[in-house]
Fold this sequence. Notes:
This protein is mostly beta strands. The chain is about 0% helix and about 50% strand. Strands 2, 4, 5, 6, 9, 10 and 11 form a seven-stranded mixed β-sheet that branches. It has a four-stranded antiparallel β-sheet with strand order 1-3-8-7, with no helix packed on it. It starts with a strand and ends with a strand.
Amino acid sequence: xxxxxxxxxxxxxxxxxxxxxxxxxxxxxxxxxxxxxxxxxxxxxxxxxxxxxxxxxxxxxxxxxxxxxxxxxxxxxxxxxxxxxxxxxxxxxxxxxxxxxxxxxxxxxxxxxxxxxxxxxxxx
Length: 124
């Protein structure tokens, strides 16, 4: 079992930046592929970014390409999501997900473990 805890969310003005962290406990996060998803009120869950367990592969959702960067530090058991040029439409609860095997990185059903989420609010 692995437990995931997200942090780093908050309130920021449009154009600003935030860096989210996803820290794992229980087992080393370095054994897991990791994804970030988000969900805004009244909207469907949306894929944000994916990073393979060694960090060699990263994938981004179309709405965040060029603005967000996913990275990991396996020595710290942590995956990061650097969010720049934030827009009001980025407002959502952001979730970190992990799994040892992922064949469709943008499908939450592929992931075995979820964090509790962290709220990101971008004001206009």
